[in-house]
Design goal:
By secondary structure, the chain is an alpha+beta fold. The chain is built from four helices and six strands; from the N terminus they run H-H-E-H-E-E-E-H-E-E. The chain has helices spanning about 5-15, 20-30, 50-70, 125-135; strands at about 35-40, 80-85, 95-100, 115, 140-145, 150-155. The chain has a six-stranded antiparallel beta sheet, covered by helices on one side.
Length: about 170
């Protein structure tokens, strides 16, 4: 395997990444809308090399989730915030934002036939990471068929779970 140069600098910049301010402004502005707008944190796909690198990127993704959650808890508009993690392609892991918009149906409800609640995955490191997130109040739906999982919090924006009919902010 070819040695990558500048990897320490890359991770230092990654940890200093500040995308939450941009998303907080959009979600706070009632005239703006999001049609599954999203933010990737590992476009290059370093997380596919080994678990240690994937965990670094997931930590940044969920750090942003928490920052945005704290800054928009008093937003008086409907929105949804969730992460989609792809089991075999860390470059596709992203934090999603969805609001009422003229192009797609709102709210997004997780398809119950394709996704099952919990983290029944064949990859132990990711399963342990998702279990740790569940301990922090996240809800996780996984789909072996789609090779992905959806992660969200019930008390952040509107729910993605059809079985939970209450909407909280």
């Amino acid at each position: 395997m070819k040695k990558r140069r500048g990897i320490k600098r890359y991770y230092k910049k990654l940890h200093q990444c500040n995308e939450w301010d941009y998303w907080c402004n959009i979600l706070s502005d009632i005239s703006e809308w999001c049609n599954y707008a999203h933010q990737h944190f590992d476009w290059i796909g370093y997380g596919d090399i080994c678990w240690k690198e994937r965990k670094e990127h997931l930590d940044i993704l969920f750090k942003h989730f928490l920052m945005i959650e704290h800054h928009i808890k008093n937003v008086e508009r409907p929105f949804q915030m969730f992460a989609i993690l792809h089991l075999n392609d860390s470059g596709q892991d992203a934090l999603y934002f969805h609001t009422p918009n003229p192009y797609t149906e709102y709210p997004y409800i997780i398809p119950q036939m394709a996704y099952k609640i919990g983290c029944q995955l064949q990859y132990p490191p990711l399963s342990k990471y998702l279990e740790m997130l569940m301990g922090q109040g996240y809800t996780i739906f996984t789909s072996e068929e789609r090779q992905s999982c959806i992660v969200f919090k019930e008390n952040v924006g509107e729910t993605l779970n059809r079985n939970n009919s209450t909407t909280t902010r």
